[in-house]
Design brief:
The complex is a heterodimer. Chain A is mainly alpha-helical. Helices cover about 65% and strands about 0% of the residues of chain A. Chain A has 13 helices and no strands. By secondary structure, chain B is mostly helical.
């Protein structure tokens, strides 16, 4: 049998599973009775495997690169959050000037030796510092521990934490599709709508019996819901659990970074923990958040 | 890489799409902790260590990508469930190779989603890489796009060829080179047995 275009296409369709069941059965009968056709199919299959190997090698090379790349910046679907951030920033700056200018408490004015830098816009690679949505105005934050320290510095630490915070794009915010995924639906829908109190309620009530993978995802989103709603201590508790993960380096490092950011607004209370987490992240140049840690450290040094 | 609310439909479409769409989708799978941790946890629970889990995860991505492109995924489960079935299938094979005397107990439902995956043996890979070397990078590029089901016009556009006809000629000539290599090195027949 000689190879022609039609036969070539027929073999291609067979190899690519494009034949109907009947057609494939008939073709296989021919194969069984025609050794030369069978040899052609074998050779064409081998050709396919060669072409697959090109794709496989390329994918392996890509995965090698992806393994070493830092977590990518947030973009796309969350762009609206940064728009909101921009608006909040303007409001925040206005509030800052009003607070630090006209009505700055006298005891702060009495420490002029401490250079306090003016609030600065973050470098272009970081998102704009923002007050998280749903955060009560500064005067109402009785439980916020930064009240115990210099109001200016607490604002700075808060801005630093929210400025360095990026919602990780890897989190799957798909509300359904996986068999048991519906247990997360309500929380995810609320989270996507920026309704963090509802998201917190929904994710908090989920227990490990929903399955390990789902429970972990619920916890992760709970941590981000707490952070986005300004409940940093609660966020830190959730992320600390991830930071204690002994099984997966990625989970541990992820937990360390978000735990650090959650501890930062209450700097005076969490000073020691912040320092050790920062040291852990900046000393390990293979840490997934190494670059972010270095940037944060440099900002913290300026503040000291 | 773009941030996308990936659902199964978008993931599948992207894997079947352009090189950049494919890369985005596969990057998502690679970096999404839920896909990875589920795989590693499974392998660890079945006698492997973290590195075995990493390996199984990466091999599963390769098989998953191939099966999606080759229409082996019939949509009878979610993509993640299907992916996980490949991980299990792969680890089961590895475990048998590593510890043939031990039996890995797979629960009944773990067999249900048969991934119909095929591994290319290391011996065959070695031989095929030799064949590909003869082709040169230009031919490999043409054949890569061909294998990704780019149309001849798309191949022509991507490789700046004057027409679809030219792309077809080049693809044909590249495949002929492969066949010639096989014909000159007939031990390929042993590899397909």
């Amino acid at each position: 049998m000689e190879m022609n275009e039609q036969l070539f296409d027929t073999i291609e369709r067979y190899l690519l599973n494009e034949m109907s069941v009947n057609e494939a059965n008939n073709f296989e009968k021919k194969l069984a009775s025609d050794p030369s056709l069978s040899e052609m199919v074998d050779m064409q299959r081998l050709e396919h495997e060669s072409l697959e190997l090109i794709l496989e090698d390329k994918l392996r090379a890509n995965m090698k690169g992806w393994q070493t790349e830092p977590p990518p910046p947030t973009s796309g679907g969350y762009r609206y959050l940064w728009l909101l951030g921009g608006v909040l920033l303007i409001v925040g700056i206005a509030a800052y000037w009003r607070w630090s200018g006209d009505s700055l408490p006298t005891k702060i004015e009495s420490v002029p030796q401490t250079p306090i830098e003016e609030p600065q816009l973050p470098p272009p690679d970081l998102p704009i510092a923002q007050d998280p949505p749903n955060l009560p105005p500064p005067s109402d934050r009785e439980e916020e521990p930064e009240q115990k320290q210099s109001p200016d510095l607490s604002k700075e630490y808060l801005a630093m934490a929210t400025g360095a915070y990026e919602f990780p794009q890897e989190i799957n915010l798909k509300a359904s599709g996986e068999d048991n995924e519906s247990v997360l639906d309500a929380g995810i829908t609320a989270f996507k709508a920026g309704d963090y109190p509802v998201a917190i309620t929904e994710f908090s009530q989920l227990k490990p019996d929903i399955g390990e993978a789902y429970y972990e995802r619920a916890q992760e989103l709970l941590g981000h819901s707490y952070f986005q709603s300004g409940q940093y201590a609660a966020a830190s508790e959730v992320f600390s659990t991830m930071a204690a993960d002994q099984e997966f380096k990625e989970v541990r490092q992820y937990g360390e970074w978000y735990s650090l950011l959650s501890l930062l607004p209450d700097h005076s209370k969490n000073k020691q923990q912040i320092a050790s987490l920062l040291e852990l992240i900046t000393n390990d140049d293979r840490h997934n958040y190494h670059q972010q840690g270095i940037a944060l450290e440099s900002k913290l040094q300026k503040l000291r | 890489m773009r941030n996308t609310d990936w659902d199964d439909k978008r993931l599948q479409q992207a894997i079947l799409g352009s090189t950049s769409d494919r890369n985005n989708a596969l990057h998502h799978i690679f970096t999404d902790l839920s896909w990875k941790s589920m795989s590693i946890k499974y392998v660890r629970s079945k006698g492997g260590n973290e590195q075995d889990g990493e390996d199984a995860f990466q091999e599963a991505i390769i098989l998953f990508d191939r099966n999606i492109r080759q229409n082996r995924f019939k949509g009878e489960s979610s993509l993640q469930t299907y992916f996980f079935a490949i991980v299990k299938w792969y680890w089961w094979g590895q475990f048998r190779k590593k510890r043939p005397q031990e039996e890995l107990t797979l629960q009944k439902e773990e067999y249900v989603e048969g991934p119909d995956a095929q591994l290319i043996s290391q011996e065959k890979k070695y031989y095929l890489r030799e064949a590909l070397k003869q082709l040169g990078s230009r031919c490999q590029q043409v054949l890569e796009l061909y294998q990704l089901h780019y149309s001849m016009q798309e191949i022509a556009n991507t490789l700046k060829l004057s027409s679809a006809e030219m792309a077809k000629k080049e693809a044909y000539s590249c495949r002929k080179k492969l066949k010639t290599f096989f014909a000159k090195h007939p031990n390929w027949k042993n590899l397909v047995k």
